[in-house]
## 1
Amino acid sequence: MGDRERNKKRLLELLQAAGTGNSHCADCGAADPDWASYKLGIFICLNCSGVHRNFPDISRVKSVRLDFWDDSTVEFMTHNGNLRVKAKYEARVPAFYYIPQANDCLVLKEQWIRAKYERQEFMADGKTISPPGNREGFLWKRGRDNAQFLRRKFVLLAREGLLKYYTKEEGKGPKAVISIRDLNATFETEKIGNPHGLQITYRREGHIRNLFVYHESGKEIVDWFNALRAARLQYLKTAFPELPESELVPLITRNYLKQGFMEKTGPKQREPFKKRWFALDPQERRLLYYKNPLDAFEQGQVFLGSNEQGYDVYEDLPKGIRGNRWKAGLTIITPERRFVFTCPSEKEQREWLESFQDVLSRPLTPLNLLAASTEGSHGRR
Ligand SMILES: [Zn+2]
């Protein structure tokens, strides 16, 4: 066996070696990475390798399988590896900081990788990190009644737990004052049609208001996102002083478990099926539906309790009910009524079914119970 083959074999073994963390991308956690930064000594996925290519002073990438590896580089990879390098570059990631996963959008991964290695924000001996606190700046916000994005001033007051935005730079009062208590933020780049698109939601009069914003700079929009997260964590610590930080972190912001078009009929199930955009919020246990994906308010919402409370989901339509164009049916049973949907494909049907089953099988948290008792349930609008 030549050097080339021998070194490739050593690398492939190293990818699987116990206790190294090499079997998952060092930056986004994707399984079976087959690229590596041979300057940092980590194994990364193809997507993350694309980000590393942008700062060659700090990182250089090679394919594990396709490129040539000499003895000393393989030696270097053996002495480093994902867990060891993580200990160095992720020594003190603030609790509020969003660490992206494999399925997150590129801007989150890119800023995480740059913050880690290029700006070295989280190294033990790095600069002192002060919590973001207050923040002021301009974001492009999608108009409520038209698709136009307009430049709006946003002001985050972390201590007061408020986010405000203004329609005019020298305007009198803010257009909206949003409580951090009810706020969520989630990157929705595809839906918004912008690689930096962020969806901010908050409660208003029993409904969920959506704001769609972006900034030209990836760093700016991710800094905004993490500033909102820092303010949320601060609020959660005050609201739930008895809970440890580790239990609060998952509550800071949340992503939808699934989104997409389905058709639904009304409460009598004789109404014609209408195409709606659905978004499943797993933490608040809500299925929200909209006429259009970028509507400011939902048209209606379905609260999803637990299987123990009599909620259930079935992979078909009730007898005698036929969909419109789509045949792949789903029926959700709640104590009050049943909801009947059709999905555009069997793949979508399976994904929705699994997502609903996931939420229904979770027991209600004290937070769910608190929300249900203070707010009541809201029907169609
Ligand atoms: Zn990755």
## 2
Amino acid sequence: MPLVELAGEDSAAEVARAYRGWARREARGRSAAYESLAESVAEDAALTEFVAGLPPGKRQPNLVFAAARYLLGTPPTVGPLRELVSQSRAELAQVILTRRTQTNEPARCAVLLPALAQLPPPLALIDVGASAGLTMLFDRYSYDYAGHRLAGRDPQAPTLRCEPRGPVPLPPHVPAITWRAGIDLNPLDVTSDDDVRWLSCLVWPGEGDRAQRLAAAIASARRDPPVVHRGDLLTGLPALAARAPADATLVVYHSSVLWYVAADQREQFASTVRGLNAAWLSSEPPGVVPGTSMPVPDDDQLCVVAHDGRPAALADSHGTWLQWLP
Ligand SMILES: C[S@@+](CC[C@H](N)C(=O)[O-])C[C@H]1O[C@@H](n2cnc3c(N)ncnc32)[C@H](O)[C@@H]1O
């Protein structure tokens, strides 16, 4: 089978519509460069035809643009992307087909930390959908909640800045963590230069200090790499939970993961977690964790932080602000 099939006119038109929608809904206000690139792709017959020839689950702009960046070495603009598609089509398709969007944002620790600190220490953590494990290193990072500062164990790890919107129960220190493990369908390895390169390609141009924060978190993770097991969150959790020490509070948590999973499987996951003797924390878009639908503004960047499936806070999906619910 060819890597990329020939696309019909209808699917190319669909791609153009999807890229225009993504430019306006997701990239606007976050990355002017990618907003403009997605609009340009939508206008370009060769590019929409290329994208339409990819399998449906591989057509997202963030995946295609990250793959182009991986090959080009810099964030793509429309000219180099067109050139790549005409001259290195198979190579580009190969990266798209073999890689996934596995953005790992350490700052998501800052929105989970206040809920985590309310649990009885010491803690044993299972990060579900851990990617490279950067959201497992709560105690290595330092935190700055608009002047409320907490020091981490690794002075060279990044300081995560998170704006509390209204009163937030901020902890006096990071709780003791005695054990941690991650699980992911496709763990990324912080000690692999290739995986690190892919992680950095997933950051969008113009996203402030995300690239520096990622690099500092990876450098810290490399000094003592977190363990992320290969497995599916639907089946692998009970065996991993059984390895946790009995004398610590087991916490199963995930951020920006469950929305990758079909709705009926989210219910199945929720019932698996509820069957474990564990606290359950999540930061996912509204309604993704069963029972967390809320009347909130239509905002692709908004997440609901939930404790045992009950909404506790609203937060930015990249960890920049946190608002506790009454
Ligand atoms: C967007 S990344 C988020 C990574 C990390 N939780 C964070 O907040 O930075 C989503 C991760 O979920 C993983 N994932 C998706 N479906 C999964 C499944 N069924 N089982 C395990 N991991 C899964 C992906 O491989 C990916 O690494």
